Design the sequence.
């Protein structure tokens, strides 16, 4: 494609690619580059433009900046604006560089060889495209990070002397989703949830903590299947629970993913195990024609090897040097968008959350936060989070139906799964983790302590086997603290009226809302 000139950048508009602007404004940065070069990448979550008023507004997916922010209407002007005010969108940048070719980037750098933004653009071109530009190594210029750490989460990284930069990108060219710094995420991190969890269990007796951990583990396993609309036998739930309990103890690699898929699926008679050799999608089929109606289309099978290699490299490298919950969101949601298996992707996606948190020591030793249960409580928000990217991705994928009523992707889509904005996913995951620490963990430990007190007082009053005392508790719990007439006539007919009254009083003393 020919390089854009000044006339190819649009003036003030009210609609940009079917998206209304809050007011008349001129596209700037990524929006201007997308309009001029049509790189065929998903639109950024938030687009920028410059308006006529001297105040910045953020509304309806737009950031309208002031006239003094307006960039020069050139490739260099809009690229500089994007890096300065919008952060890195690696998918747009890679596709843009493919559209411009090397010559304009070389000219841009030669024009400002010591410029901070020119050197960052130069680095990003070579890093993303794998091509070496016809430029000599930089000799002067202050070392600065490739990714602005005040805008997006990166790592310490290492120096890149050719450009006199520090490469702090949290990934490789094969897999590098990014997360913006937001007030919400900064607030979650300031809460120091990992320390809160340690404080909660600090005075919990070891036996109570062990039973709490077992319950939370089972709760997470059940919930993970429930999210998929499945009700498997108890042995499969327990087997998957045991796998979750071992999360973080094995290095993540392809063999480990295959092993975990085998545990998830159990009965594989009607499922093709292993990494997909065909297309994949999430959605429905037309009831009459059986044609696919996709809500999300998975990565092409020919891209899986590269994407999985990138994910594994992220887990072993950058994920070890980032906030644990943010790293877990990047890895887990990246996996579910790629969808490398025919079946089992959803549960493995949630397993990867546990993998990162456990590997990083975020959760107390031996305790698994029931993140899947928190997700189940927020199932609509969970789906909205998944769709926050899928809906922007789907229009760019060209596909055709196969004879097996599957999809066959016709264009190159690998970059869409390597690079995406994982900010909504990190915020959502932090909400779930916060619930498990501030509600589920303390609630369950407190419940077990009260339950133990109930049993102690019942057994001091009446000689009763443990399982019978547990059945008595369940009847009381199901009936608001009163023993039903049926239970008094059958299972507990041996109790006198006075004993029943004392049992109900004990339950009320321990489990009434006022005592909790």
Sequence:
């Amino acid at each position: 494609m020919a390089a854009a000139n000044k006339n190819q950048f649009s003036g003030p508009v009210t609609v940009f690619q079917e998206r209304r602007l809050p007011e008349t404004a001129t596209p700037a940065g990524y929006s201007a580059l997308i309009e001029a070069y049509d790189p065929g990448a998903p639109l950024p979550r938030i687009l920028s433009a410059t308006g006529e008023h001297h105040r910045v507004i953020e509304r309806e997916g737009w950031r309208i900046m002031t006239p003094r922010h307006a960039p020069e209407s050139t490739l260099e002007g809009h690229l500089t604006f994007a890096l300065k005010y919008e952060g890195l969108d690696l998918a747009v940048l890679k596709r843009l560089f493919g559209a411009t070719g090397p010559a304009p980037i070389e000219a841009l750098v030669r024009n400002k060889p010591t410029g901070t933004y020119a050197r960052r653009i130069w680095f990003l071109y070579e890093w993303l495209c794998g091509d070496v530009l016809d430029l000599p190594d930089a000799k002067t210029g202050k070392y600065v990070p490739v990714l602005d750490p005040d805008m997006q989460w990166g790592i310490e990284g290492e120096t890149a002397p050719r450009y006199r930069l520090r490469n702090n990108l949290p990934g490789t060219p094969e897999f590098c989703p990014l997360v913006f710094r937001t007030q919400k995420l900064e607030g979650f991190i300031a809460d120091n949830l990992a320390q809160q969890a340690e404080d909660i269990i600090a005075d919990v007796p070891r036996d109570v903590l062990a039973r709490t951990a077992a319950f939370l583990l089972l709760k997470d396993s059940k919930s993970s299947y429930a999210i998929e609309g499945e009700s498997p036998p108890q042995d499969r739930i327990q087997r998957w629970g045991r796998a979750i309990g071992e999360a973080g103890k094995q290095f993540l690699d392809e063999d480990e993913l295959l092993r975990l898929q085998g545990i998830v699926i159990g009965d594989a008679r009607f499922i093709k195990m292993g990494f997909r050799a065909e297309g994949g999608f999430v959605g429905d089929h037309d009831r009459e024609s059986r044609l696919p109606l996709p809500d999300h289309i998975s990565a092409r099978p020919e891209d899986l090897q590269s994407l999985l290699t990138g994910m594994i490299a992220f887990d072993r490298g950058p994920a070890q040097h980032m906030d644990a919950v943010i790293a877990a969101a990047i890895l887990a949601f990246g996996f579910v968008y790629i969808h490398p298996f025919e079946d089992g992707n959803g549960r493995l996606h949630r397993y990867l959350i546990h993998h990162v948190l456990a590997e990083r020591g975020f959760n107390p030793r031996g305790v698994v936060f029931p993140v899947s249960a928190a997700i189940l409580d927020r199932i609509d928000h969970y789906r909205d989070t998944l769709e926050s990217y899928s809906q922007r991705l789907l229009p760019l994928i060209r596909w055709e139906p196969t004879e097996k009523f599957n999809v066959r992707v016709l264009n190159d889509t690998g970059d869409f799964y390597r690079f995406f904005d994982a900010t909504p996913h990190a915020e959502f995951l932090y909400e779930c983790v916060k619930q498990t620490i501030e509600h589920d963990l303390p609630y369950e430990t407190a419940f077990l302590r009260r339950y133990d007190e109930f049993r102690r007082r019942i057994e001091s009053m009446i000689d009763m086997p443990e399982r019978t005392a547990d059945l008595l508790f369940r009847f009381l719990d199901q009936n608001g603290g009163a023993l039903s007439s049926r239970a008094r006539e059958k299972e507990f007919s041996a109790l006198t009226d006075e004993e029943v009254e004392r049992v109900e009083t004990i339950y009320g003393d321990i489990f009434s809302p006022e005592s909790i």
Residues 1-93 form one domain.
